[in-house]
């Protein structure tokens, strides 16, 4: 598109300046291609024309290859010390002009330009610091760690880049936000020694001056040091220890945003990376941090006030729908979830938006619109700054400047550009306001309930509760409970902001509890949870900011005592109420294993156990939610819970083996395996169930470990098994993995904790009782050496498939069942015992175990399945049961399992009132058992 005629004088003046600067070489300007490119540069950037006139050697290079490669930084050494400022400034001007050239001519996109500007700043910082460091070492020596000997490693300055420099998205004429730090205190070892603080402060000041000071050649980079701890009043350079202490005690919300983008841009990169990792918990909290929204609201309000005061509506950075709103939107969503989702800890804005989209925190359409707006705004911002190398973000009012900007963007006029700009800004403002306005979506609350709550503990009339739907006697009990709660120190000592959140949340909770089946119980459950999160205001913020989470919590608490207790004990589970994955497909066996193994990335045993417990809590909670919501059948849930236990045991086994190898060395050629019995072995693990485990090992005769404190194989593996049991039962801040029951090992409580493969096989062959072979039907290897697991399968098959006397087998099984029922069956007025009652789950299990033990010698396929549905299918395939009976028993099992899980979820005994479904299921089991001669009725 041809530029408007009003721009022609600008083009001609630029070409005249270049002809004069080039002198005898001005002929290069006469080529049509050259003239066309220079016309576009002249319209877009006075700065570029000025640089080309000052450095005429640059123009032929750009005309030759269009500036395809970055220009090398200058070489600074003591022999050209006086020239350092000029060399740096000329390099920055030349390289910036190359970036203008490629941007204006469409050779680079906005990402290339931002990356190039960042790379230029990095190069100037690194070049300048290296030269100054060499000068300081010559004058003062190197700083040595005060706690190390004189020959210890030198301590170096670390230059952290924050803001857009840290995010590798530096705009064309931006200042650079720097913070200086150093790893350890000490003193320099030169002829004129300095303490570390003084040494690095002087070095940092010299670096800022070398880059920032305006000379006849202009400036290299404007340096802003105000983001350091304590701002302008703080020391120029701080030790890492002082910085850590500052952020622990003084760190503010805006500093979390600033350090979110922190990157080492010069100096000791290794030390700087370690500090950034150390400060990660300051930036990204372990829990969902909806409290970050308050900080964002405060920062946005301050910026809005500045924009209004200075009439900056046309500021595309700070104004409504501007760059800052896109940055804030992405950063606050990262801060909210980044502590729990490492994929969101992204310094660069566009990848951050895409990560948020992939995590389903931003709808795909919104993410695409924000990325498009950001790219347009940053390109426009660069063009505003390229015009005269000015640090501006404001749209021009001058008509000629508007024409230049529009022409540079290939728009017909300013109005056409403005129409596109306004569309982008409107979309950004809409998305940003939606983020900040979430609290307005709170459910409507009866004003009397809200007034009653705020009047507590000294005022307020319990009659309001009755009017809200609570029964009279329960209303009095709830009133008393609420008054005690409000008088508790945790509530009385709340900060004003947290108390305001509590006052918004509690009336909603109370109003929603009235229709519950047991409202007093529901209120008590909710108060237990709220009491536990009062000190973790980020979770109170979650419930305040996210009405869907609040509604989900109320539904969960009123329907499931077990999940209510879990959430109260482990508030991290509140995250699941908002996690889109909790509503989607449940993880596969492989995904469960991978999630648990991720805990092994932590650095020490305590951290691994904590992370593993959190993972187990989160995933089991997700499975329980799916069960509670009827999104999957109970059989699927129990199978997934067993897989999750398998994965946790495998991780714990690896931890225990590491500990044993470290303490006692390894045993060459030895093998170890963990067997799961009972519901774990049958892949039908209940919610909150313990694990029935048996341990096997196999080692060469007289084997010993090769460590300094060697142990023979028997003791080595006994200690390994003890460690596994202890680690599974260790209580951490994130809870306990599992209670373990080891009574099913050979010889029971009197037997060794761990058995050799040979002794286990001999026991199963010669001494095991019938009931132990029944238990072996459901046993499987859950972790350990694959070869030993295969050997166990062979031992199991031999034990189960041997021919048996059917009559004796039947009498043994019926006798054992009668003994169990007499001791364990709780069927009575309270209801039918789903597990131990006549015709219940255990009767069905005994029936299948009887058929396997009786028929496995003739039908080896009966040995493969462990789970009840698969065993039923195998029995049918072997011709031992007709199709109708198999289908009916499968349905009976599903009924019992679903009712049993429902009881567990609400912390009720597994006793249910009989209805037609339960009666029919019991009759089916009884009929099938009787048909096989197993009369499990009461004796």
TrEMBL record:
Keywords on record: ATP-binding, Ligase, Magnesium, Multifunctional enzyme, Nucleotide-binding, Nucleotidyltransferase, Transferase
UniProt lineage: Bacteria, Pseudomonadati, Pseudomonadota, Gammaproteobacteria, Lysobacterales
Source organism per entry reads: Luteimonas salinilitoris
InterPro entries listed in its UniProt record: GlnE, GlnE_rpt_dom, NT_sf, PII_UdlTrfase/GS_AdlTrfase
Gene name in the database record? glnE
Task: List the cofactors.
Answer: Mg(2+)
Reaction(s) this enzyme catalyzes, per UniProt? [glutamine synthetase]-O(4)-(5'-adenylyl)-L-tyrosine + phosphate = [glutamine synthetase]-L-tyrosine + ADP; [glutamine synthetase]-L-tyrosine + ATP = [glutamine synthetase]-O(4)-(5'-adenylyl)-L-tyrosine + diphosphate
CDD domains in the record: NT_GlnE_GlnD_like
Q: What is its EC number?
A: 2.7.7.89, 2.7.7.42
This protein is called what? Bifunctional glutamine synthetase adenylyltransferase/adenylyl-removing enzyme
Q: Where is this region: Adenylyl removase?
A: 1-440
């Amino acid at each position: 598109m041809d530029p408007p005629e009003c721009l022609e004088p600008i083009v001609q003046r630029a070409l005249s300046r270049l002809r004069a600067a080039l002198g005898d070489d001005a002929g290069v300007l006469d080529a049509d291609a050259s003239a066309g490119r220079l016309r576009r540069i002249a319209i877009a950037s006075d700065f570029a024309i000025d640089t080309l006139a000052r450095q005429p050697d640059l123009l032929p290079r750009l005309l030759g290859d269009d500036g395809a490669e970055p220009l090398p930084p200058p070489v600074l050494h003591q022999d050209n010390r006086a020239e350092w400022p000029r060399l740096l400034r000329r390099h920055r001007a030349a390289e910036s002009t190359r970036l203008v050239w490629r941007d204006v001519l469409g050779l680079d996109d906005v990402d290339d330009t931002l990356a190039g500007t960042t790379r230029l700043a990095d190069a100037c910082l690194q070049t300048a610091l290296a030269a100054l460091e060499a000068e300081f070492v010559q004058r003062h020596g190197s700083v040595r760690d005060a706690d190390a000997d004189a020959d210890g490693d030198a301590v170096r300055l670390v230059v952290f880049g924050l803001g857009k420099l840290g995010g590798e998205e530096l705009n064309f004429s931006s200042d650079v936000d720097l913070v200086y730090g150093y790893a350890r205190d000490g003193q320099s070892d030169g002829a004129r020694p300095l303490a570390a603080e003084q040494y690095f402060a002087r070095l940092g000041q010299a670096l800022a001056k070398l880059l920032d000071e305006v000379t006849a050649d202009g400036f290299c980079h404007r340096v802003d040091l105000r983001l350091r701890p304590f701002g302008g009043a703080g020391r120029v350079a701080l030790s890492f220890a002082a910085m850590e202490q500052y952020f622990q005690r003084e760190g503010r919300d805006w500093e979390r945003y600033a350090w979110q983008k922190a990157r080492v841009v010069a100096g000791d990169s290794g030390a700087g990376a370690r500090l950034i990792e150390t400060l990660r918990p300051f930036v990204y909290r372990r829990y969902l941090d909806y409290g970050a929204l308050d900080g964002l609201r405060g920062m946005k309000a301050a910026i809005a006030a500045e924009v209004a005061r200075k009439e900056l509506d046309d500021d595309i950075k700070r104004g409504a729908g501007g760059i800052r709103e896109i940055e804030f939107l992405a950063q606050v969503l990262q801060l909210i979830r980044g502590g729990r989702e490492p994929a969101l800890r992204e310094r660069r804005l566009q990848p951050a938006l895409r990560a948020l989209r992939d995590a389903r925190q931003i709808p795909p359409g919104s993410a695409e619109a924000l990325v498009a707006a950001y790219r347009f705004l940053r390109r426009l911002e660069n063009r505003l700054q390229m015009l005269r190398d000015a640090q501006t973000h404001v749209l021009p009012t001058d008509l000629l400047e508007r024409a230049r900007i529009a022409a540079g963007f290939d728009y017909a006029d300013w109005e056409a550009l403005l129409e596109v700009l306004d569309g982008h800004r409107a979309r950004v403002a809409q998305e940003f306001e939606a983020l900040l306005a979430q609290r307005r979506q709170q459910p409507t609350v009866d004003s009397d309930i809200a007034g009653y709550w705020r009047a507590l503990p000294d005022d307020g009339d319990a009659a309001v509760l009755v009017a809200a739907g609570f029964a009279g006697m329960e209303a009095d009990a709830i009133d008393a409970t609420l008054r005690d709660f409000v008088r508790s120190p945790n509530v009385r000592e709340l900060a004003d902001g947290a108390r305001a959140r509590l006052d918004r949340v509690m009336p909603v909770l109370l109003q929603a509890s009235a229709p519950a089946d047991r409202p007093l119980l529901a209120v008590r459950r909710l108060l237990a949870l709220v009491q536990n999160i009062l000190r973790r205001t980020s979770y109170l913020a979650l419930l305040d900011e996210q009405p869907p989470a609040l509604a989900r919590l109320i539904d969960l608490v009123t329907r499931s005592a077990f999940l209510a207790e879990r959430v109260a004990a482990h508030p991290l589970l509140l995250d699941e109420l908002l996690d889109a994955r909790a509503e989607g497909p449940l993880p596969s066996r492989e995904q469960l294993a991978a999630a648990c193994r991720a805990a092994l990335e932590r650095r020490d045993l305590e951290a691994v156990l904590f992370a593993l417990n959190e993972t187990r809590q989160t995933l089991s909670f997700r499975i329980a939610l799916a069960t509670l919501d009827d999104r999957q059948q109970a059989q699927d849930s129990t199978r997934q819970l067993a897989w999750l236990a398998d994965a946790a045991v495998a991780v714990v086994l690896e931890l225990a083996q590491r500990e044993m190898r470290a303490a006692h060395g390894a045993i060459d050629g030895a093998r170890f395996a963990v067997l799961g019995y009972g519901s774990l072995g049958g892949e039908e693990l209940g919610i909150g169930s313990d694990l029935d485990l048996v341990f096997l090992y196999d080692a060469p005769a007289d084997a010993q470990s090769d460590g300094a404190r060697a142990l023979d194989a028997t003791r080595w593996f006994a200690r390994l098994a003890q460690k596994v049991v202890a680690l599974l039962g260790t209580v951490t801040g994130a809870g306990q993995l599992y209670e373990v029951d080891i009574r099913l090992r050979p010889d029971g409580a009197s037997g060794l904790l761990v058995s050799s493969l040979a002794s286990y096989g001999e026991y199963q062959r010669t001494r095991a009782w019938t009931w132990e072979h029944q238990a072996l039907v459901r046993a499987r290897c859950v972790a350990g050496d694959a070869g030993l697991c295969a050997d166990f399968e062979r031992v199991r098959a031999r034990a189960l498939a041997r021919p048996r006397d059917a009559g004796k087998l039947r009498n043994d099984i019926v006798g054992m069942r009668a003994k169990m029922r007499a001791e364990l069956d709780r069927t009575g007025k309270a209801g039918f015992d789903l597990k131990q009652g006549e015709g219940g789950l255990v009767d069905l299990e005994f029936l299948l175990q009887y058929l396997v033990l009786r028929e496995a010698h003739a039908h080896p396929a009966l040995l493969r399945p462990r789970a009840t549905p698969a065993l039923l299918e195998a029995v049918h395939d072997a011709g031992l049961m007709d199709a109708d009976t198999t289908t009916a028993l499968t349905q009976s099992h599903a009924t019992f399992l679903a009712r049993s899980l429902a009881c567990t979820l609400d912390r009720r005994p597994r006793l249910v009132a009989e209805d037609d479904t339960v009666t029919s299921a019991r009759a089916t089991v009884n009929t099938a058992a009787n048909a096989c001669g197993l009369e499990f009725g009461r004796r």
